[in-house]
């Protein structure tokens, strides 16, 4: 596996300072403008390629499902042991 160094991406272009609008039409248009979306950088660029992020999410989901299944299984075993102990105590009396 080869690890390639990340090249710094071009910084996003900054918008020039806007003057304070004096009329409502200009004021409304100022707020409706959407900023340019920033290009992904670093880990976002690496994990977004070829759907790698989905593989990571799937592995994490499988780990959580395994932990929850283990907890339920252990809880059921403990319940069975408690019932067994209760029965043996009631038989002794």
Descriptive keywords:
93 residues; single chain
Task: Provide a descriptive summary of the structure in words.
The protein is an all-alpha fold. The chain is built from 3 helices and no strands. The chain has helices at 24-32, 43-48, 52-92. The chain is elongated and about 80 Å long. The chain starts with 23 loop residues before the first helix and ends with a helix. The mean pLDDT is 76. Residues 1-22 are annotated as: Disordered. Keywords: Membrane, Transmembrane, Transmembrane helix. This is CcmD family protein. The chain crosses the membrane at residues 53-72. Pfam families: CcmD_alt.
Any chance you could write out the topology, listing elements then pairs?
Elements: H1 24-32, H2 43-48, H3 52-92
Protein name: CcmD family protein
Region (Disordered): 1-22
Keywords: Membrane, Transmembrane, Transmembrane helix
């Amino acid at each position: 596996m080869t690890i390639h160094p990340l090249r710094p991406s071009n910084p996003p272009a900054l918008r020039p300072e806007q003057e304070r609008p004096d009329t409502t039409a200009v004021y409304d248009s100022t707020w409706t403008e959407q900023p340019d979306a920033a290009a992904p950088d670093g880990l976002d660029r690496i994990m977004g390629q070829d759907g790698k992020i989905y593989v990571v999410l799937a592995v994490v989901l499988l780990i959580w499902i395994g932990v929850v299944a283990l907890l339920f299984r252990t809880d059921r075993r403990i319940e069975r042991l408690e019932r067994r102990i209760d029965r043996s105590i009631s038989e002794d009396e």
